[in-house]
Structure formats: C-alpha cells, structure tokens
Amino acid sequence: MYNIIPQPVSILTSNDKKGFTLHAGTTITPSPFSDIFISFVRKTLNKKVREHEDTGEEKSIILKLDENISHDEGYTLRCENRRVFINAKTEAGLFYGLQTLMQMLLQTNGKLPYTLIEDYPRFSYRGFMLDSGRYFFPVGDVKRIADLMALHKLNVLHWHLTEDQGFRVEIKKYPLLTQKGSVRSHTNFNRKPHGGYYTAEDIKEIVGYCRKRNIKVIPEFDIPGHSSAAIACYPYLSCLDRKLEVATHWGVKHDILCAGKESTYRFVFDVLDELMQLFPGGVIHIGGDEAVKMRWRECPYCQKAIRENSLRDEDELQAYFMSRVNDYLKAHSFKSVMWNYDLNRADDIPADIAWTVCASPADGKAMKEEAMRGRKLINTAAFPYYLDLPYGWNTLKRVCSFNPALTDNEEDTLGVEGCMWTEYVPNMKVLERKAFPRLGAIAEAGWAQKDYPSFTTFLYKAEDYLKLLDVYSVNYTAIKRAHPSFAVKHMSSLWFRRRVFHWQGLYNLFDDAAAKREAEELREKLKNNCE
Q: How crowded is the C-beta side of 100, counted as CA atoms within 13 Å?
C-alpha cells in the first residue's frame, strides 16, 4: 500500500482494525526531545495533507525510547486505535520513524489503516558528499541539503572544503587561506570571478543544524594534492616555493604540498587543530587522491626525507605523509578517512585509515584484503555514485542495479555515499537536477535490505517519490530523462566530454619543464650553502 523510499524492512497493513486519521488537533507526545521533530513534520504535512475534522477522538502520535529495539537507528511504527506509536532505541530512530510516517500520510491524505512497520538500516554509514571547494554554496543551501538528506535517512554529510580552486573554511592562524585562497579570478572559460568561505560561526551553525537532523558532518581537508589554493597563499608549502594563483580550471595539478619540509607538517597540524574544534564529530577526511608526484621526484627536500626515513620511493613517501597526519589525529582522539584513488601500494597506508572507495577493482579481491586488515570501507564508486556525471553515464537504472557491498561479506562495507563534485555544478538548481532522483536510489542502497533498490521497484514507487520531492520544491530530473534512450545517452556524453576539455594538459607540459629547471637551481643553491 505504501511506497516508501528508502524501503522499510517490513510493512503489514489490515483493514480489520482501526487505524489513524490526522486531525487539526493531533499532537506528538511526549516531547523531551528536540522540537525539530514537531516542526519538521508539521512544516511538511501542512503543505499537502488535509487535516480532517476533529471528532474528539484520540489522535496522538506517541514517541517512545525503547531499549528493546535492537538497532540503534531502527524503529517500529504502529497505527492502531486512532493513534500512532513510534518506538526506537535512540532519538535518531524516532526521527526516521517520523520520516516514514510523513510519507505514509502524504500518500493517504492523512487517513491510515492499521499498520505495523519494523525498520532498520542496512548500513550504518549513509552519506552525501558536497564539494564546496570548487563552487561555494551559501549556508542556506547547505542547510537545505541537510533537510533533503534527512528526508532520505542519510546520516553523514561529507563536506569537501579545500581544493585547488578554493579554500573554503576559515582558519584563524592562516588568514590568507580565505582572504586570498577562497577567490579565483574566473571559472573555467568564462571571465567571472568566484569566491566565498565559511566563517567559524557559519560552520558551528551548520554542524548544529545537521546534528538536529541526526547528520554527522565530516570535513575534508584534501592533502597533499588539490592544494593549489593553499600554496597560492603560502608558497613555502610547495616543494619549490612556487608563486601560484588559485586554480581556475578543472584538472589535476602537479604542484602539491611538499612532504619533505617540516614547515608543511606544522601547517597541516595547525589547520587540523582548528578543524577539530569546529567539527567535534571525531572524524576528518584527509583526501589523499590525485597526488601527482612529479615535484617530489625533483624536490631535494622530499628526496632527503625518502633517504632519512629509509623509504623506497615517492609512493611510500605519500604513505609516510598520510601516516603522520593519521597519527596526529589519533593523538587527539580523531579518526581519519581518505580516498583509495591511485594508491599504488595500499599496504603502505595504515589500516586504521578508512577508505572512501571511489575506484574499486571489479573482482573485489583488493577490497577483501583491506577488510581482512581491518580497514573500514565506504562505497563511493564513481560509477554509479558520482552524481555530477551525466545521466547518460550514470543512469538511474545503473544506480538502482549496483550492488553496494564491496566484498562477499556485507559486513566489510561500512556504507555508501553519493558524491557531488561541483566544477560544473554552480548552484543548487543544477545540484538538485543532478542529484534527484538518483540520490533516492542511493538512499535505498544504504538503508533498504538486499533486494533494494531494483530498477523495477524504484519505477513502481517513483510517482509517490516525486510527489514527496514536490513538497520540498526539489528541481529533480524526470524519470524518463534520468534513464535516457541510447541516443540521448550518447549526446549527453559528448556534451559532457566537450565541457571537460581544457588546456590543463598542455599547460602542465610546459610548467613541468619550468619546474624541473627551478628544482635544478634549488639543488645547486642548497649544495653551495652546504659547501
């Protein structure tokens, strides 16, 4: 009868017993919890659900914390004798029960038969990654994202805050990071400057807002690569003290943080000190992706670090770099997460650093080995979970048909995450068009049990799902366009590839030659100083 997204574990309905009717005087009791429960439900239901005439009958929605519920985020929901009972072990479970109840009331115009639901999530980590490094999203937009995440029972906002194209979080010890590093002169091939950053107060406001919606915020400080904006502010962070500008174009940059200077580690640790104060959730994402090591091969400081620490090469130097950062966070009771992208020797990366797995071998063997080492794994596979990619690549059917488990043993997978990279996503209108309805399918993969999502069941529930998105005025893509024909797939792919085309590769060719000359001059200078 109900088309709930994400799908509950079990739903039983009957017309033989009295159910529940929403009245103008319906109360939610008791309320020892956050007022967010009441305001969130009322705000939604008042838009679409007719409150029936008050007959004086019992009309309560009763919330109860219950230690007998086995799952921390699980709940039971029972509509019986004109009341709704939601029991849960935690406030999060009560919140998710109310999300389910909202969908039920919307679909039945406020009149529910006898219903019994038992529900709990498949995975404990159900995330959405927002890249604010390339395009800045104002505080109000981030809050809206949190509301839409809560609607889908997603519980982790992975917030990508530092990039080549912008450093977006205020670090008081290094004011240039936002004074200069948050602004780029133009964006790709247009001439419009772009900038913006989050103050410490903005961060605290957003973290608090998310907490009320049972969402943990994990900030990402992307290092040692994707650091052009930081280097533009403080050139000593690079291998050759290069004077860079905040990056304007899409593409992998070859100037990264120098892993051979202690001043680099001091900078990193100082930034982490402030991030740990702003984000008290106990987890920080430290990047680790696309760390091109051309500068390290030429850098006398990096080469000295390799020799002095008995490292084999630059790949092991990156492992050394990430290990030091991880050790620093552990000393402050924080955990680390990093991308698994382009790790030539995974064994060198400490197993207590969790992975957001964007590049996973098809056979799952490598993931199984990492799980056996004790590594926590989060499935963020670019295909199909990168939501910025066109529907011609990551079709709705592809998202629905994808198995989120990274190994044969489902317990090896901590959870799933949809990623929104924003080099071609400048605002919320575009973000919503790309994210929905695909994020609904990802939410199903994270919460619902093994048989969900499937493309068939998702299509069956799509009409009610889109009505739910209409309540929130979401600028979603129509189902037909989200699963395009072969011709439309081809055209959208060509369009996206055309937009991605840039001169970064040619620029890198000439810039690498210049950097090599600068490295030779630096080595000669250091040699003369030693003599």
A: 34
From the centroid of its chain, how far is CA 384?
14
The predicted pLDDT at position 152 comes to 97
> Which residues of the chain form CATH 3.30.379.10?
10-119
Residues 6+ apart with CB under 8 A from 481: 391, 488
Provide DSSP, 305-337: HHHHTT--SHHHHHHHHHHHHHHHHHHTT-EEE
- Going from the C-alpha of 485 to that of each of 260, 388, 424, 479, 480, the distances in angstroms are 52, 19, 23, 12, 9
The alpha carbon dihedral of 299, 300, 301, 306 has a sign of positive
Ramachandran region of residue 251, left (φ > 0), alpha (ψ -120 to 50) or beta? left
| Residues in contact with 30: Cβ distance below 8 Å, sequence separation at least 6, in sequence order | 62, 63
Cβ 176 vs Cβ 233: under 8 Å: yes
Side chain identity, residue 316:
E
One-letter amino acid at 257 equals: L
Q: Which amino acid, residue 246?
A: V
**CATH fold of the domain at 125-459:** TIM Barrel (3.20.20)
Instruction: Say if CB 73 and CB 93 are below 8 A apart.
Output: yes
* 335-339/283-287 β-pairing: parallel
Q: Which tens digits make up the pLDDT trace of 455-507?
A: 999 999 999 999 999 999 999 999 999 999 888 888 877 777 766 655 556 67
Distance CA 200, CA 161 (A): 13
Give residue 194's pLDDT band: very low, low, confident or very high (50, 70, 90).
very high
DSSP per position, 12-53: EEESSS--EE-BTT-EEE---S-THHHHHHHHHHHHHPPPBP
Please give the single-letter amino acid code of residue 522: L
In one-letter notation, the amino acid at residue 288 is G
Domain 10-119 has CATH 3.90.79.10: no
Type and span of the H or E element at 264 = helix 262-278
Instruction: Outline which parts of the chain fall under CATH 3.20.20.80.
Output: 125-459
The pair phi, psi for residue 480, each rounded to 5°, is: -60, -40
Say if residue 58's pLDDT is above 80.
no
CA distances (Å), origin 257, targets 44, 176, 291, 382, 484: 47, 16, 9, 25, 42
